[in-house]
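WARN no homologs supplied; continuing
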Amino acid sequence: SLPYGAKRDRDPTSVRVRSSSLNHAARKLDALGTDPRFRMFTPDLTRLALFLTAWTAFLHRISHDDHVVVALPAHNRLTAEDRQTMGLFVEVLPFGTDIACSDSFETLFARVREGLGAFLRQARPNAIAAQAPGSTASVLNFIQARFGTFAGAPARATWLHSGAHDPHNPLRLHVTDFDNSGPALEIDVSAAISRETNAADIPDQFARLLEAVCDDATASLVTLPLTSDAAAPEITGLCTGPAAPPDAVTPVLRLIEKQVQE
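OK structure emitted
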């Protein structure tokens, strides 16, 4: 299902939102990479796994989906010779994760780490197959690039937004670091989502989740606050506890009918 109860449409536009609280929380999450529980082979891979886990957890909370698929761009420049070749070779490959109601950030990270190893082994040119529209819930653009001088002058990179958006992927998270100063986060919110919720609130909701997992990575994800608003149950009402046992004397068909009505 789409986040915030939005309906799918063909509007190919979006707005890019950011907040200082989100970037502050992102640096705290990045610092978890020094913890042996979350450390991987390289700093960049550690950072990718941390933000992929956090973004998966956030999508789980706002969409109520127990299987979250995030599209990850792969640059397809696997050798030194490839990296000397001009052209665009990027493919966007789906990364799926199952989430249990009992998951914490720590347990979800372990599952993402295992899946990421398999994903990277298979992320090769032409690895993608045809996908049905809407088969991915979001895109995570993870860009850790360094730029030197340009014709002898210092260069600074800016990640631009054209306003265009694939309506099949209603949310896009950008995690960039162009000058080795730490991760900067921005979120593209499609028009379909913007019509259902205030797009400017989404970075702060994500920031609250990041702050919470940094405070306690073992806490259940469903207990972490996304908002201080009284409307929080509309956003976070998922897996709040085990379902009540069915009444033994109620016929099965009646139980099914009751669930459909609810």
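The first helix runs from residue 20 to 31.
OK
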